[in-house]
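Q: What would this chain look like folded?
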Amino acid sequence: MTNKTRRNFLRGAGVALTLPWLESLPLLGQDGAPVKSSKPPVRFGCVFFSNGVEPEHWWAKGNGAAMQFGPAAQPLTPHSEDLVFIRGLYNQTAFVSTSPHLGRMNLLSGAPVSLDPSDIRVGTSFDQVMAKRIGAETPLASLALGIEPNELRLEDGLSMIYGSSISWETPTKPSMKEIYPSRTFDALVGDGKGRRTDRSILDAVLADAHSLQPKISRGDKVKLNEYLESVRDIETRIDRASKEERLEGWRPTLKQPNMPRPADEIPQDVPAHMKLMLDLTVLAFQMDKTRVLTLMLNNDLSQMNFKFLEGVRGALHLDLTHNGRAPLVEAMYLKTNQFHIQQFAYLVKRLKEIDEGGQSLLDSSLLMLASSLFDGDTHGADQLPIVLAGRAGGALKTGRILDYTDKGNENRRACSLYLSLMDRMGVRLDRFGDADKRLTDL
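A: My prediction, written as structure tokens:
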């Protein structure tokens, strides 16, 4: 019996809302009979931030609760026991690429990025390899989310579709990311028919929820109520954004267009937009709507303006990261690094707070934080900033630092890590990208 039939729903008015993991409610098979296994599935999520880090600020030492972090990674401190801080891994083809930015946007594939403008090609990313293998077990094989719009302009003669995408369904086809919270919400909890979100789905399933209460334990009642409240909260925030004349966190240049529709502007409220997409990530995992998800906090060569951060002037992120080591600008760049890491720390915290029958949703997850560059100022790709979080259902030991900087090029390939991560997701390959060996010591 595969997992794809193991789900329970709340139903009403033509809507089926997937329940979270409830230990006292048996999972049902296709024939309606309970299935024996009640172990939560493992979910994979990759959070991407652009333009790398300040190397001197990106470090960790110690282990477990005593782990210490450099200034850029400081927001990880409360979660040190849930993390694996990795140094020294890299993608060989990115390291030797003559394109300083877009030629290194092969973060999740390790394959060469085509520098021929007429041939868009970057390799299938490992999240999509997993989606093809285990995606049938969930309503959505995978989700690709983001904050900034997909870009089709050219940069240094190459398509910015490279910079807009980390998830690639095939070597030539990106998974076009969704940046609108309302559409993401509809994909998770709608009825699949374009149902509007201005009428709460909870209203349609409330009676079914009440009938379920006597059948579940006290702990599961608390969990169910918290879950329904989280769905309501996201609906309310989306509705509030629309009433404030914002288009799901975006404001058009004019109330009425005076030209053919251009690309959307940068979100007016970046932190609120990111938080909403992170909460939707939690909801997707909690509902078991997908077990494979990527979230781009910004695009490569990002035009995001970080003026919302105290002490950061109105420079674009790209300008802050390419600072020539100017002290004042470096300090602002550090603040953007810390902000990105705070978003990942928020996701870790949320998942850790959700119980799944004696273990947290974080324990049943495998998260990866990464950028496609290390030193943003010099476009350095000799190693990648990578942090793992979650225990992958007990298959990953956390509270550790793994340093591969001195282990030789053949033993520090990022694709070796990806082979190891896919193993923990139940997807075993002999080779991926430029690697045919698992990562040692993971």
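The chain is about 25% helix and 10% strand.
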